[in-house]
Specification:
Elements: E1 3-10, H1 16-25, E2 30-34, H2 47-52, H3 54-72, H4 88-113, E3 116-119, E4 121-124, E5 129-133, E6 139-149, E7 153-155, E8 168-169, H5 171-175, E9 183-187, H6 191-202, E10 206-210, H7 222-235, E11 238-240, E12 244-251, E13 254-261, E14 264-270, E15 272-275, E16 279-281, E17 314-316, H8 327-341, E18 355-357, E19 362-367, H9 370-376, E20 380-386, H10 391-395, E21 402-408, E22 414-421, H11 424-436, H12 441-445, H13 456-464
Parallel strand pairs: 1-2, 1-6, 2-3, 6-17, 8-15, 9-10, 9-15, 10-11
Antiparallel strand pairs: 4-5, 5-6, 7-16, 12-13, 13-14, 18-19, 19-22, 20-21, 21-22
The protein binds flavin-adenine dinucleotide and nicotinamide-adenine-dinucleotide.
């Protein structure tokens, strides 16, 4: 007789573990199987996000942002701190400590909710049976009424840039460097490239980024990407656009990179090279053929808008399915399927998912860019407010960037909000809530914002959309 559960979740990342906890809250008997292995062989729940993604990257971004402020802003505040130096080992120890605390926290949450944690590899067989291969070589088969696939994603590798984890690295390796590389190359000027490039640039690396596209940050609003480029240049990130890597090879202690642009072939030598060209869904060994799960042409598990695969009682959530590869998107999908399994209402509003890039200045947006609204043919108005006109931002010595709101001229509905500036990732929550409630620009205009706060920038941007800004000149 195999072990019986109501729900088995395969994958304990930010999509899988919330699915497990929510299902357990709804009185279902739940197991969550996860195979994450750290470099030292230890297991930890939390997936990419907690172990090698969101959390460690934000720990290092925070540390190095503080360093940058100490070096470049303290004097402006009239603070004499003397020469500032870095203890990278201590910085990395802090990062590792935060990861350990957070991943350990998931086990505590599982215990409190009654989720059974299982370490090992899960494979969906036919008939909603799941085979578990333990790290010790053991095998057993579990059964469940419902199964949730949440196996996540892994970095893309480039065949002509052979990964060795030391000189030619992925983002995980680049979070754990024990020394600051003098010359750092990054292939891909996307979210990972910019966040990790900022970290190592602030720690002293000369950073060269090789980006295939001619356009910088094409997913962001045009005005935001233009402003962002200006600040990244100022920080010293050398971003080469329209640049295609032909090959890279390790030569002694260095990496030789050959890339081409419209101007011809170029050679670059760096001490470390990070490949950050996107991630792919991870489905290796996840489903047996008899399980009947379909993958799409890009390797994602095919699902409908409620994350149902074509097989009854099998769902898939997070990075392994279509949509943005973001932890909060996976979490909402995990919670939705748990609710659906328990017979409750569940829905994810895919139109209102915020994106944040945790650089300085921070970048955040929700909804459509101005370019997308224009292409849709809908009549629109735009309101912007520069942080330079915000008293709080000035007091913080953080007056770069702006808030921008795009609303429909016809019915005033907010279509998109774009921020570049201090705490943009926190400020965007107000815009997300407004859009979730289908708010109009007028709703934001009529909402009282405390003074002096950064959130006033959003208020003023909403006012500016109707040329009634108070604290900036209406154009
Ligand atoms: P994962 O987090 O990848 O978790 C999947 C888990 O399933 C893993 O533990 C894996 O080992 C396990 N698994 C896979 N197959 C099996 C199997 N067959 N059996 C058992 N276990 C299995 N997103 C944000 O929203 N904000 C950020 O700031 C952010 N920063 C990031 C920074 C970096 C450097 C990276 C790489 C990513 C970042 N992301 C960020 C993206 C975020 O990490 C992912 O969107 C998120 O982790 C996806 O969650 P998931 O649960 O779908 O998959
Ligand atoms: P990305 O898609 O953000 O950026 C990859 C970049 O590499 C793109 O600009 C692309 O044009 C470029 N590229 C692709 N192939 C190339 C090539 N051969 N040569 C040069 N450039 C090439 O992907 P990423 O930065 O690897 O991040 C992966 C995922 O992780 C993203 O989907 C992102 O959503 C998620 N993530 C999110 C956060 C966050 O929310 N703050 C942080 C890090 C990662």
């Amino acid at each position: 007789m195999s072990e019986q559960y109501d729900v088995i979740v395969i994958g304990g990342g930010p999509a899988g573990y919330p699915a497990a906890i929510r299902a357990a809250q709804l009185k279902l008997k739940v197991a969550c199987i996860d195979e994450w292995r750290n470099a030292d062989g230890s297991h930890a729940f939390g997936g990419t996000c907690l172990n090698a993604g969101c959390i460690p990257s934000k720990a290092l971004l925070e540390s190095t942002e503080l360093l940058h402020r100490a070096q470049h802003e303290f004097a402006l505040h009239g603070i004499k701190a003397g020469p500032v130096s870095v203890d990278l080992a201590a910085m990395q120890k802090r990062r590792a400590g935060i990861v350990k605390t957070m991943t350990g926290g998931i086990l505590a949450l599982f215990k409190a909710a009654g989720v059974v944690p299982i370490e090992g590899h899960g494979r969906l067989l036919g008939g909603n049976r799941v085979e578990v291969s333990g790290f010790d070589g053991s095998r057993r088969v579990l059964e469940a009424k419902d199964v949730v696939l949440a196996s996540g994603s892994v970095p893309f590798r480039l065949p002509t840039v052979p990964h060795d984890g030391v000189r030619i690295c992925d983002s995980w390796n680049a979070l754990e460097f024990a020394e600051t590389p003098k010359r750092l190359g990054i292939i891909g000027a996307g979210v990972i490239g910019l966040e990790l490039g900022s970290v190592w640039r602030r720690l002293g690396s000369e950073v060269t980024m090789i980006e295939a596209l001619d356009q910088f940050l094409p997913m962001a609003d045009g005005a935001v990407s233009k402003e962002a480029m200006r600040h990244f240049k100022k920080l010293g990130l050398d971003v080469k656009l329209g640049a295609r890597v032909q090959q890279a090879s390790v030569a002694g202690d260095a990496v030789d990179v050959v890339y081409t642009t419209s101007a011809g072939e170029h050679r670059l030598q760096v001490d470390r090279l990070v490949v950050a060209v996107g991630r792919r869904p991870f489905t290796e060994g996840l489903v047996a053929p008899e399980a009947g799960i379909e993958l799409d042409e890009r390797g994602f598990v095919r699902v409908d808008e409620h994350c149902r695969t074509g097989v009854p009682h099998v769902y898939a959530v997070g990075d392994v399915v279509r949509g943005p590869m973001l932890a909060h998107k996976g979490k909402e999908e995990g919670v939705m399927v748990a609710d659906l399994i328990a017979g409750r209402y569940g829905e994810v509003n895919y139109k209102v998912i915020p994106s944040v890039i945790y650089t300085a200045p921070e970048i955040a947006w929700v909804g459509q860019t101005e370019e997308q609204v224009k292409a849709s043919g809908r009549a629109y108005k735009v309101g912007s407010f520069p942080f330079a006109a915000s008293g709080r931002a000035r007091a913080m010595e953080a007056s770069a960037g702006f808030a921008k709101i795009i609303a429909s001229t016809e019915d005033d509905e907010i279509l998109g909000v774009h921020l570049i500036g201090p705490m943009a990732g926190e400020l965007i929550a107000e815009a997300v809530l407004a859009m979730e409630y289908s708010a109009s620009a007028e709703d934001l205009q009529r909402t009282i914002h405390a003074h002096p706060t950064l959130s006033e920038a959003l208020h003023e941007a909403a006012l500016a959309a109707d040329k009634r800004a108070i604290d900036s000149i209406n154009r």
